Structure formats: structure tokens, C-alpha cells
Amino acid sequence: QLSSSTVAQCAAAAPSVLSRADVITDHPFNNITDTIFQKIGVNLHQQPGHPIGIIKGAIHDYFDSHHPTTFTKFDDLAPIVAATANFDEVLVPADHVSRSPNDTYYVAPETVLRCHTSAHQAEILRQGERAFLVTGDVYRRDSIDATHYPVFHQMEGVRVFGPQDWQASGMEGAQYAEVELKRTLEGLAQHLFGEVEMRWIDAYFPFTEPSFELEIFFKGQWLEVLGCGVMQQQILDKNLGPGQKAWAFGLGLERLAMVLFDIPDIRLFWTSDQRFLGQFKAGNMTTKFKSYSKYPPCYKDVAFWISDAFTENNLCEVVRDIAGDLAEEVKLIDDFTHPKTGRTSHCYRIAYRSMERSLTDDEVNALQEEVRSTVATKLNVELR
Ligand code: FA5
Ligand code: MG
């Protein structure tokens, strides 16, 4: 038995050095860019003074001090996983959109950058763990804005119950798990935020039933911070044995940190600027981030006739690979279908902004030119 403060190591612990050639190959299925490769191994969640590390620590504290069960903690599992672990073992249907290379980063057809920490549920259940927390970096091809980033951090929690747990309560096992899940997560939200407005939304995940999302009211809108539910029986039966019930949750650490510390833009987590990092201290939950001078954004539009194969995620990837964190937002501002030809034109507005300095016109124009020419050659669209 590991003590609750020990972070469990496991056979799949991340190698300290991954070479570019391990991740970016010329396999036709490979869709990993250098921008993404450079994030692997940074492990913000392992830096105790970084907001992501501070949040992880606070959640660990909550489970250590407010929950009767001892949760085994994993935070060093390699982000490159078998596609079967990421999808099949958590019952993601064969035709589910998340499997598409438009949404997920593939190293090869059988290997992906995990798109959620749920990729580790089955393997850890097979090791016989009944209560565990897994923290790690996860990767998704996604849109670009203040709350979405292609690399972010999740924490997965799983808690298994046996009949002795629910029989005394007079509830069915599944109901007991649901009640205990919501109590645990509401308690967590209160531990992190004190009084905060929150609401439960019905949701769908292939690996839980029923499923829920928790939203927190932040800067005038509801922000989804986690997904959870009662684990599908099949996953438990197969990996742990029959007769048990369990809950599981997966929460977004950036989203929680943004609410807790008042961090306005998800890109800030990746900066090395001491004006950001210097504001946070290990164990300190009461920091409110003070924006340093915000440099002005620069907007550039690009319009083109799309083809059937066009996707917004592919466009965002092109922009991100060229502009990196200088790309603040990519937004569709016009969508027009020509009445005669039936062709569709999209116009996107790209906001360029640095969190660290003023961008020059020349610099932004050069980025935009490169975006335009890459869009034209790589995305098979016709510029207007
Ligand atoms: C999942 O990833 C499920 N695996 C969660 C889960 C686990 C459900 C166990 C049930 C049982 P979802 O895609 O909604 O669900 O992501 C979970 C959380 O990650 C979100 O609530 C949000 O807080 C965060 N998140 C999702 N996409 C992004 C993104 N692009 N950038 C930052 N945070 C994100
Ligand atoms: Mg969701």
C-alpha cells in the first residue's frame, strides 16, 4: 500500500527524453506538429509553484483530508498511449468523431497522444487499484480561443465500491455511487472556491451512465470544468471483476486554475515570463492574477472558397503552427454560399497578440502571409 502522499510510479512512466523522431514520423497518419511536440515532457502539473501544479496539489489535499478513502496518485504516465487504451477500453464507439485525425493527434494508426486521462482507467483497474487520481497532459486538435488550447491538463478520479459500501445505505449500488460522486465533487468545488455558483448538466460519455458535467459561473458565463458519471459496468466487470460499482470524473485543471486565480487567457500557462510565474507560490491558493500591460491585438482576415475536406480544426492547426502562442483567436466571421455556383466561402478573423510585447506590423504581416499561402497549399482551398 502506497502512502497517500506518494505519487505512484508505473511501468508506463514517461521516459525523461522523447526524441522528435519518436513522435513526428513520416507515417501518413502522423499529424503531430513541432508546436505540439515541444509541449511533451514540459509537465506543468509537476511544477509545484506553477498554477497547474498548485491546483493539482490542492485537489490532492482535498482527497487526503476530506475523503475517507486513500486515493493512489499517478502523475507520471506517458502521454503516448495505444489507441485501444484511449478509445476501445473506455467503450468509445468505432465511428465516434473523437477518433478522427481531425480531433486526435496520431503518432501512428495504433498510437495516439492521449486526448483524455480516461485512457488510463482500464490499465489501472487491472492493477487492482480501487481509488485513484491520474494527472497528466492531454492533447486535442481544437479551436483557438481564450479557454481552449491543444494541450491541457486533466485529472481523472476513479472510486470503486463493493456491496458492503452501499448495502448499509439502503440504496442500489449505482445510485449510491452517483450520490457519493456528486457529494465528493461539490465538496471539492467548495474546497477550491469557497462559495461559487455551480450547476449540474446532464451529459453523455461512452464510459459512464448516467453522465454529468459541472459548470461554474465565471466572468459572466457558465464554464464547463469537469465531466463525470457512474462507470459503465462492462469496464469494471472486464478489468476488475463482477459485482462492483464505481464513479469516475475528469476535470480540466486549466479551467479550474483560471477561475481560482483569475487568469484570463489559457495561453498564459505556457509562458516563461516571470511577471506571470512570479505571482504564484506553491501551496498558495489565494493569489489573484494581476494582468500586466496587455498589448494591443492585431486582426487579420483571410477568406477562401472551401472544399468538402475543409475543417476548422485543420485551419487552426495551420495558424498555430505558424504563429504559435501569438495566435489568440481564430473566428469565423462570414459564411456565404454562392447562389449560382453553390460554392461556399468562409472568412476567418485571426487575432494576433503577444502576452509579452508589442508585435510589429511587419511581423504580423509576415505571419499572415505565411498563413495565407499555407492555407492555400495545404488545405486545398481557393483564396479570395
Ligand atoms: C473528458 O475528457 C472525459 N474523459 C471526462 C470524464 C472522465 C467523464 C471520467 C466521465 C468520467 P471532456 O472532453 O468534456 O470530457 O473534457 C473534460 C474537461 O476538460 C472539460 O470539462 C474541460 O474542463 C476540459 N477541457 C476540454 N477541452 C479543453 C480544451 N481544449 N482546453 C482546456 N480544457 C479543456
Ligand atoms: Mg465536455
TrEMBL record:
Chief location: mitochondrion
GO BP: phenylalanyl-tRNA aminoacylation
Catalytic activity: tRNA(Phe) + L-phenylalanine + ATP = L-phenylalanyl-tRNA(Phe) + AMP + diphosphate + H(+)
Function: Is responsible for the charging of tRNA(Phe) with phenylalanine in mitochondrial translation.
Family: Belongs to the class-II aminoacyl-tRNA synthetase family.
Gene3D superfamilies: Bira Bifunctional Protein, Domain 2, Ferrodoxin-fold anticodon-binding domain
Domain FDX-ACB: 293-384
NCBIfam families with a match to the protein in the record: pheS_mito
CDD domains per record: PheRS_alpha_core
Record-linked InterPro entries: aa-tRNA-synth_II (IPR006195), aa-tRNA-synth_II/BPL/LPL (IPR045864), Fdx_antiC-bd (IPR005121), Fdx_antiC-bd_sf (IPR036690), Phe-tRNA-synth_IIc_mito (IPR004530), Phenylalanyl-tRNA_Synthase (IPR002319)
PANTHER family noted in UniProt: PHENYLALANINE--TRNA LIGASE, MITOCHONDRIAL, PHENYLALANYL-TRNA SYNTHETASE
Keyword annotations from UniProtKB, A to Z: Aminoacyl-tRNA synthetase, ATP-binding, Ligase, Mitochondrion, Nucleotide-binding, Protein biosynthesis, Transit peptide
GO molecular function: ATP binding; phenylalanine-tRNA ligase activity; tRNA binding
KW Zinc (keyword) present: no
Compartments where found: Mitochondrion matrix
EC number, UniProt record: 6.1.1.20
Transmembrane residue ranges: none
Gene Ontology CC: one annotated term: mitochondrial matrix
Protein name: phenylalanine--tRNA ligase
Domain Aminoacyl-transfer RNA synthetases class-II family profile residues, every copy: 136-297
